[in-house]
Amino acid sequence: MLHLNKIINSTKKLPQIFNSEAVFTAFDTESTELSPSKGRIIEIGAIKFNKEGVISTWSSLFNPYQKLSSFIIQLTNISQQMVDSAPPITEKIDDFLSFIQGTILIAHNAQADLNFLNVECMNAGKLPAKNRFIDTLRLSQIVYPEAEYHKLEFLADYLSIDKGSSHRALDDAITCQQLFLKMIEKIDYCNINKKKF
Questions:
Q1: 121-157 pLDDT, tens per residue?
Q2: Helix then strand then coil, % of the chain, to nearest 5
């Protein structure tokens, strides 16, 4: 499934949007598989903020009713016991959708996270999230063309951002938020204002 969310992809508009009354939610998902057609979300983490600072955070584990692979357990440090004792996402999806309502979503490789989120919405009998979004992966390729890699972990090290526990959803969401703020600052400072990404 491809998401239908509208991307904000103009470096010229980003500082204007950021300096307006806009509210953003950087979020991340962890899942049982790479594809939403087979996998389920096991964790969502999100941080809501505006130009003044952090407003609030949201985080939850979910029971996917699937066996986690050893790869996912090793990657995320999320155990089978942790998800088995967590609620199903259907019990929490309304709360998360309320949390992000009216905000601009930010994610690293946003299409993947949005696809997972919107499949889970459909599975729960909910309409897909309609939020506009910003993809920090695509934006980083414009703002930091010299970077050897554009994975979130690499960019965090490159820019001296504290990653917390990588591949845990809330820590990755916070890392994504910090990356976005650094890129907004550089776009303003370097006048990177005529490119789409």
A1: 999 999 999 999 999 999 999 999 999 999 999 999 9
A2: 40, 20, 40
- Rounded to two decimals, the pTM is 0.94
* 43's tokens: 């964790």
Q: What is the pLDDT of residues 87-125, one digit of tens each?
A: 999 999 999 999 999 999 999 999 999 999 999 999 999
Pairing of β 41-50 and β 53-61: antiparallel
Q: 169 with 24: CB under 8 angstroms?
A: no
* Per-residue b or e along 108-136, where b marks 16 or more CB atoms closer than 10 Å to that residue's CB: bbbbbbbbbbbbbbeeeeeebbebebbbb
- The residue with tokens 């949201």 is 58
**Is 3 one of the catalytic residues?**
no
Query: How does residue 2 score in pLDDT terms, banded at 50, 70 and 90?
Result: low
- Asked whether the beta carbons of 31 and 39 are under 8 A apart, the reply is yes
Helix (H, G, I), strand (E, B) or coil at 114: helix
